[in-house]
Amino acid sequence: MAWNDGLIARRAPWARVTRPARPFDIERIRPDDRPDDRPEDTAGGSEGFGGTRGETEPAAGPGNRTRDGRAGESGSASPAQDLPAAPVPPPPHTGFSRPLRTRLEALRELVGLSAARLDAHTLTEAGHVLDEAVARHRLSLDHTVVALAGAGGSGKSTLFNALAGAPVSEAGIRRPTTTAPLACTWSDGADGLLDRLGVPSALRRRAPHHPREQRPGLAPDPQPGDAGGPAPGLDGLVLLDLPDHDSAVPGHRRQVDRLLGLVDAVVWVVDPEKYADAVLHERYLRPLAGYDEVTFVALNQTDRLPGDAVHRVLHDLRRLLDEDGLAVGEHGEPGAVVLALSALTGEGVGELRDQLARFVAARTAAERRLAADVDGAADRLAPVCLAEGWTGLSARGREEFEDRLAASVGAAAAGQAAERAWLSRAEQACGTPWTRLRHRRAAGRSPVPRAAAMPAADGPAAGSALGGDAACPGPDAPVTVPAATAEAGTAPDSATGTDTGTGSGEPGARAARAVVEQAVRTLAGDATAGLPEPWARAVLDTAVSGTEGLAEALDRAAARPLPGVRPARPRWWAAVSATQWLLLMLQAAAAVWLVAVLTAGPAGDWPPPALLLAAASLGGPLLARVCRLAARGPARLHGRDTERWLRDASAACGRSRVLEPVAAELLRYREARAQHAVTAFGPGRL
């Protein structure tokens, strides 16, 4: 008898079962993985794992009813028309459907992408689902493995015998009665499944196939509630009688737990005394709530209940199942089948047999079970794969990172120093000889060699364009003093050529390293905001790994000579320098002329030499002033080129060591999240 209660029959949130972890081998599941040589399902158009499954209905006739319940009509008056037509066997099941194959493939990709990022237990559980899918696909999909599970004294063995139509399992009052799993099959070809389940050959039985009308005490046609022999629809059923899940023998519980993770469906046999047992609900039914479509719950021993007590107990059982989150199938909705029966008297056994017959005939139990396994794996992976509010690495975050790296090498200060150095060189080249001599004496050193005083010209020694190893040199790259710094007349303490004022360079290096570390921490914080903890840790580890040696690489990149983007020395500098020397000689000549005129007497013509001396003396500083004004534009451009080059060099180092690895890790997470969506919801979500 079945119980209908529309208030309780609602879809409940799916809980998931967590099976013991074990090593796995992530393997791509392909149609050719199955070694059997069963023919393809040409009737259903299936391919590979399966696809569209064909279903062939029995021919209509007097002995068969069509789907609308009407008896078939025959046009002939043959005596054979009174005999039932032989049922047409369903086509062989050749594989899983395309949606399930897609979800399994997505789960395989997800596990591969998450390797070394998620904890081993989570990955092992997901890999176990893949292993079981491969193992189940290689075995017969035309058979459905159904286990009878329950507590001691619930009547599992008695129900097993009633379904088998013969006393194949020992039933008695001794506990535990069943000490090892016993199997009963209705058709050939299930040996591989039984080997996988670990059922010994001595405990394998075959259901008897004698006609009902030959069994004494039974009517020729099956009647509702009849506990007689096996129905034809049970062909393909593999029925297991499991030990008690509450057995005092520890090995029995381990056997039950192992087999529950391998069978296609479970019939939970409960009795009026133990149907509310906390162990049953908390250890099994609640964690297995997501497997409602492959779950049957049979309230046995109803013959012990008086009157309408069966309905009250069944109603309370359904209430408990609803609290466990196990959706009950009612009114055409998918879900668990709940019914009441008495294996001893046979009442309700026929209904259970009919339910199992329809369930086995659909040839979808294994796929439903695996789909529930994939659902469970997706639910367990959801907290470590789905991020709320995560936006990724923003363009603003990248720009701020590059700005901080540029500040760490002193790009702006180096540009300003390069501009001042250019002006200083222009003043020395275009100034008066007296001004040059004064600057050299003030510096307290000899004139800087020409090769060091000018920017490096184009050539191998000038470095190469930014990018690759040239932009971010390795630890063995030589360190050279920037030309602008060498010309400026100061001994550089830092790689950027700016004087730290300490004479050792160590404080400057420490300050740059602190700026670099702060830049990396800020970038990692921006990239991991909202990420699940395992992936955020992976991104942070990637960023920290790139930080090692980044400060030194920035120093080496900043110390490389500036590429010869400008002429080594403007030509007009030489012309101005020659003019300054010419004016100096004119000053000397005019001075000699003036002295000679003045010593000749007061009547001498002194104005011409005086005017020449004055013009030559004023012309030199005036020319130097004009040249300094003219040099400001090129000096400003040179400073900008220097700053831009340092910014590009520092950004190239940051990209190669931090930004690109972090971006690759974030891209890996995006792909993992997309594969999780396909795993959880099926194709069309990628």
Overview of the structural elements:
- With 686 residues, the chain is mainly alpha-helical.
- It has two domains: 31-52 and 90-385, Rossmann fold; 397-657, no CATH class.
- Helices cover 48% and strands 5% of the residues.
- It contains 20 helices and seven strands.
- It has helices spanning 98-114, 120-138, 156-164, 191-197, 250-260, 278-285, 309-323, 349-361, 365-385, 395-408, 411-430, 433-443, 450-453, 468-471, 483-488, 506-528, 533-547, 550-559, 571-600, 607-681; strands at residues 144-150, 182-185, 204-206, 237-241, 265-270, 295-299, 337-340.
- Strands 3-2-4-1-5-6-7 form a seven-stranded mixed β-sheet, with helices on both faces.
- Helix 6 links the parallel strand 5 (265-270) and strand 6.
- Helix 1 (98-114) runs parallel beside helix 9 (365-385) and helix 16 packs antiparallel against helix 17 (533-547).
- Mean pLDDT is 75; it is low at 1-88, 210-231, 446-470 and 475-510.
- GO terms for molecular function: ATP binding; GTP binding; ribosomal small subunit binding; rRNA binding.
- Residues 12-98, 206-237, 434-508 are annotated as: Disordered.
- Residues 146-276 form the G domain.
- Residues 22-41 have a biased composition (Basic and acidic residues).
